[in-house]
Give the backbone structure.
Amino acid sequence: MSPIGLIDYGMGNLHSVQRSFARLGADLETVHGPADLDHCEALVLPGVGAFDPAMERLRASGLDAALRRSCADGRPLLGICLGLQLLFESSDEGRVEGLGVLSGQVKTLPRVTGHPLPHMGWAPLIPATPSPLLPASTPEAWVYFVHSFAAQPAVPDATTALVEYAGTTVTAAVWQDTIAACQFHPEKSGPAGEAMLRRWLGWVARP
């Protein structure tokens, strides 16, 4: 199997992601610029921080255009946390356009008394459209969140899992074509998160 590239644009939780994949026997190769993508079988886009600075860093390195081309070519990509949000067209958090490889916007979580922002901690996923990341047979999965924003995909079937927050449900994970992404942190979500990463690796390595 060709290397899996880990996008490093200075705002990702690279070490915890690398450790999680290493436990599954997959060594990630750090990607700093467009040329590093050429020999990668698949990509992981992590992220911690704010939307606009992240997009500005991707643009400064040329990785924004390279990631758009990569997704258009059908190369598998897994986005994590902010990495999910960057895949969409825009975010309430800023003014800069997102990568736009998924249609839809990222919206601020509802502000409700008694429900502090960011939404932080463990919560159970609510199954939506089955996907290779979360098949229909998946047992209940509790995962770890830290976020104040959630994606609203323009394609409803792209949502593969939801989470309850402040009396409503918001997108927790998406899968569309060869793009998968989690608003939560699978690398910090114990056995449930490890199982998702293993399923994603198996899908990438499929014949």
Summary: Residues 190-204 form the longest helix (15 residues). The chain has a mean pLDDT of 95.
